[in-house]
Design brief:
Blueprint lengths: L9 H9 L8 H11 L4 E5 L2 E4 H18 L6 E4 L5 H12 L3 E2 L8 H11 L3 E4 L2 E2 L2 E2 H11 L5 E4 H9 L16 E6 L9 E5 H14 L7 E4 L6 H5 L2 H7 L3 E4 L5 H11 L3 E4 L1 H9 L13 E4 L6 H10 L4 E7 L5 E3 L6 H6 L3 E2 L5 E5 L12 E6 L11 H7 L6 E9 L5 E6 L3 E4 L2 E4 H8 L5 E11 L3 E10 L7 H9 L11 E4 L13 H11 L2
Parallel strand pairs: 1-12, 3-4, 3-5, 5-8, 11-12, 11-13, 13-14, 14-15, 25-26
Antiparallel strand pairs: 1-2, 6-7, 9-10, 15-16, 16-17, 18-19, 19-20, 20-21, 22-23, 24-25
């Protein structure tokens, strides 16, 4: 096993194998059978590019051989910071075939994030587009390479396409891949500002997708439209690309979330399933031209990332009567809750569902770690056959985040509904959930403290009707100083962070409210700044 990965205890691993959850196969082996079984069916659509299961298998094998010849080897870490494109899918399966481990970076990440991912993982390669909007990747990636001795291969998207097309010499050698090793490192929304790497093993990640697919009504006739960032856990594996391919379905990629573009793809490809965060669904439902498109093929809209208001689900059903909006709560660390298609209507509207595996274990606990009474709010702690037992390479942090008996302390607050489903009630973590993207308040606070006008800062979430939450930077200025939101944003852009992390509101205060322990009371701050704009 890769050093730094926390294994599942043997008694649990044995149970998960005996119950058939873990197949003890690598993802490459799992999908080898899938590619053969559905070889002639269409698997992936990306614009004019249409790939069958056999096409994906053949092209990813060819790429895998070329990557080996380039110098990659099993357990090497690779950072693909790619948009929604067929090349990501081919690279993902090529890396699985040679036992390399992708890091689930996004095309919106910039120097601050990519350099962290490379350093944390010891990555040897990056794959990236030439540009996204007005941003050029090459100078940034070369800068990371100069600073990180492990990073040897910088593969632009045009170079990746050449590696896919270049006829390889010979056959893919037999490579033994331990199914208890990571098949991917997902990323945590760490409250410290430094992301933690989440090792998802071949055994648990395959089970994750297999168990989620039937709960979402995925069949061989299903067509999924993916507009959310492709490397995120939800689009990739819950059930995501993996789950739809396991069932013989089809995946259509969209490089944009522009409503009319998505409506056109739904109509053209008779899309049956769509993944959204609430902010995206609100945009789609608010688009006046929605009535101009035939969306009757849509059966299920899967929503994750943040809690959705019941009114949004009701409006979706009104505008698209054929469709059920399925609430889910998930985490890159593992545990998945889904509302079931046959739940009573009131339960569908009020809850985020219940766990998908019979061996998912959930405890809601108070600040002392004691289970709360039924119906009371407590912190979600959990363990199970696809929930991690520790972040990668951080034993001290793991000691705080996991109980002695292996329950992961999520920081999310929930209560158990009388139906047996669960309701999300907030969180203990100091995170801002902007349209499903989790932002560490501490990370942005530390950057803002570097501004010469700022004496103290606290970043808090404020409600937003579309995104759920936006970030408000509350600052105390040094004597005689002034600061505007545009000044602050300009300063933070110089720190080369992802755009979604920039504050969208600024409040200049004389002092911060404090708790009885003398700490800044962010709860009181949220109430203050929210009330100020009513």
């Amino acid at each position: 096993m890769l050093a730094g990965v926390v294994p599942f205890p043997e008694e649990y691993a044995r149970r998960y194998r005996e119950k058939g959850y873990w197949q003890d196969q690598s993802l490459a082996q799992e999908f080898d059978a899938v590619f053969r079984k559905f070889s002639s069916r269409i698997a992936l659509v990306d614009g004019e590019t249409i790939l069958s299961y056999e096409n994906i298998d053949r092209q990813s094998t060819n790429l895998a051989i070329n990557l080996l010849e380039l110098g990659l080897k099993p357990l090497d870490r690779v950072v693909p910071t790619l948009p929604n494109c067929a090349e990501f899918v081919l690279l993902y399966f090529a890396l699985q075939k040679i036992g390399c481990i992708p890091i689930a970076a996004l095309a919106t990440h910039r120097y601050a994030e990519i350099s962290q991912f490379v350093k944390l993982s010891g990555a040897v390669a990056c794959a990236y587009p030439e540009r996204q909007s007005d941003f050029e990747f090459e100078p940034m990636i070369q800068r990371v390479k100069q600073e990180c001795s492990t990073l040897r291969h910088c593969i632009s998207l045009p170079q990746l396409k050449k590696l896919i097309e270049k006829k390889s010499s010979g056959k893919l050698p037999a490579i033994r891949i331990d199914p208890t090793d990571p098949c991917i490192f997902q990323l945590s929304g760490g409250t410290t500002g430094i992301p933690k790497l989440i090792p998802r093993t071949h055994n648990d990640y395959a089970y994750n997708s297999r168990i989620a697919a039937p709960v979402c009504g995925v069949t061989q006739d299903s067509t999924l439209l993916l507009a959310l960032p492709i490397a995120h856990n939800l689009p990739l594996a819950c059930p995501g690309i993996q789950g739809y391919l396991f069932r013989g379905g089809k995946v259509v990629l969209s490089p944009t979330t522009q409503p009319e573009a998505l409506f056109s793809l739904i109509e053209k490809h008779r899309v049956s399933h769509l993944k959204v965060v609430p902010a995206l669904l609100i945009r789609l439902l608010s688009e006046p031209t929605i009535a101009n498109y035939d969306l009757s093929s849509l059966k299920l809209i899967q929503s994750g990332g943040q809690r959705m208001q019941p009114e949004v689900r009701l409006k979706a059903h009104q505008l698209i009567p054929s469709c059920f909006v399925q609430e889910n709560f998930g985490m890159s660390e593992g545990m998945l809750f889904f509302v079931r298609l046959d739940d009573p209507q009131a339960v569908k509207l009020e809850t985020c569902g219940r766990p998908v595996s019979p061996d998912d274990e959930v405890r809601l606990v108070d600040d002392e770690g004691r289970e709360v009474a039924p119906g009371e709010v407590g912190e979600l702690t959990c363990r199970g056959p696809y929930t991690l037992r520790g972040y990668y390479g951080v034993p001290e942090y793991n000691a705080k985040q996991f109980t002695r008996d292996g329950f992961y302390c999520s920081g999310d607050l929930m209560r158990r509904h009388p139906s047996g489903n669960y309701v999300v009630e907030g969180r203990k973590k100091d995170l801002i959930n902007r349209g499903g993207e989790k932002i560490s308040a501490e990370e942005i606070e530390n950057l803002i403290l570097g501004h010469p006008a700022v004496q103290n800062v606290a970043c808090v979430p404020v409600p937003d009707p579309n995104l759920g939450e936006k970030m408000c930077a509350c600052v105390i200025l040094k004597s005689g100083s002034t600061l505007s939101l545009s000044d602050l944003v300009r300063f933070l852009k110089g720190k080369e962070i992802a755009k979604f992390k920039l504050p969208e509101r600024l409040e200049v205060l004389q002092d911060f409210p404090v708790s009885t322990f003398g700490k800044v009371s962010k709860k009181a701050l949220v109430e203050m700044v929210t009330h100020a704009h009513r």
